[in-house]
Write the structure tokens for this entry.
Amino acid sequence: MLHHYDFRPISIFAGRSNPVLAEAIAGYYGQSLGQVTIKEFSDGELYVRYEESIRGRDVFLIQSTNPPASNWLELLLMIDAARRASADRITVVIPYFGYARQERKDQPRVSIAAKLMANMLTTAGADRILTMDLHAPQIQGFFDIPVDHLYGSAVFVEAIRKLNIENLLIVAPDMGSIKRARAYSSKLGCGLAVIDKRRAQANQSEVMSIIGDVKGKNVILVDDMADTAGTLVNAAVALHERGALEIRAACTHGVFSGPALERIANSDLIEFLVTDTIYHDPATLHKKITTISVASGFADAIRRIYTDDSISTLFTE
């Protein structure tokens, strides 16, 4: 039986948001990144041109969409240029999907930004989306094209096992992280605790209640992202006050905006595990922060998409 991939070559291109991860993904796949010119005119407008033919090819475009917003626009122009250059199938690889926290209309007169981003990707010409740990998994339903959703736990669980931590306890830093934390505790064969944050009145400090016994435990807080790191740092203080011993954190996406790095450096956390879905200059990261690459997982997913093999085994949270 002749498959499409017997005669349709693959091309992998990257935007400028995370070239280190893109090169690593292409390296694990076994080929170099394609040549593409991306530049800005003097007035700030972006320009994209592929420097090689992609007619009839299976094209994979890698771009994390963390701020600035130009990362989004750059990706949309790459999709449009690939569609107009007669690429056969365009898969958009978004290791970090920005604007995922604005996925519902929870106040009057606000945008559902995640839905808008999904619409723009589809309108630009994307055929398929490959991403990791969406802040709200239901965003997959915003698309009318296939979405493959990978989980950061695939790399974190292995890294945590190698630490050989005794009396390990997984902790969800808020009620929204319970499902993720339960998956970690199940895979690692350890207990689970949950932090319930409540603010009695506006402008008053949050009161943290911990559901579960953390005394004498070595704790790992798990979350999908760390933005200003306030939630995790405050959770570490509460856990320490209630008798937890060593406290670590594992977050898929290290946004690290504002005071995040300073907070982590001065926190009760002894180690902070994060993936490389968002690029940070290693020289700017505190020694507590350990970066784990997700490149091999994305390369494996690209290979399976290209050959039309099942990638459901990569979906296990």
